[in-house]
Amino acid sequence: MAERSQTAPEAGNDMGNDEAIGGNVSKYIVLPTGYCGQPKKGHLIFDACFESGNLGRVDQVSEFEYDLFIRPDTCNPRFRVWFNFTVENVKESQRVIFNIVNFSKTKSLYRDGMAPMVKSTSRPKWQRLPPKNVYYYRCPDHRKNYVMSFAFCFDREEDIYQFAYCYPYTYTRFQHYLDSLQKRNMDYFFREQLGQSVQQRQLDLLTITSPEVCQAT
After folding, report:
1. Which pTM was predicted?
2. Which long-range contacts (CB under 8 A, 24 or more apart) does 60-63 make?
3. Contact 67/99 with Cβ under 8 angstroms?
4. Which residues partner with 189 through β-bridges?
5. What are the Cytosolic carboxypeptidase N-terminal domain coordinates in residue numbering (predicted)?
6. What pLDDT, in 10s, does the model give residues 196-209?
């Protein structure tokens, strides 16, 4: 069995049961069935415990194939689209197939040529996977959920690879951008706190208007 983080489900749970998904996987090591001992190169380690990360569960289907379950949105448990996770401890020329098996959308740009993003520690610029390696389809093995499968070949053992639904844009990055705008003291830009999110993050109200209106208010 694969080594499981504290948030991963126990063996034998229904693969289509989203209730088995807890928090994000954290340095989750996938070991072959029956293997005992320390992980070797090629025994993949998955992680999504970082800002904007999303990967709740990993099931190894075969030596080369993995079923990946994404976590739902905080306030909408039926909405499951975003994924963002890292893979390390890879072997050079190791080929894999990743299946995101519990998408909630019936329609997706993945059906029209869009492809997931990938980067690595030695190549930090986001790139799209070749569309020919990406497939989006309804799968009877997963309660007829829509599945997005993509093939990938790892080429550098020392790298950590990161995969995402599209270009990630974190809350922290957004706050830094708003801070930089506020420091410029532009007379047509006004920022105030509207409230807090469920996770106690600041919600900003931005007013962008002409200087005359700002002075009038």
Report:
1. 0.84
2. 60/2, 60/30, 60/32, 60/33, 61/99, 63/32
3. yes
4. 208
5. 47-135
6. 988 889 999 999 98
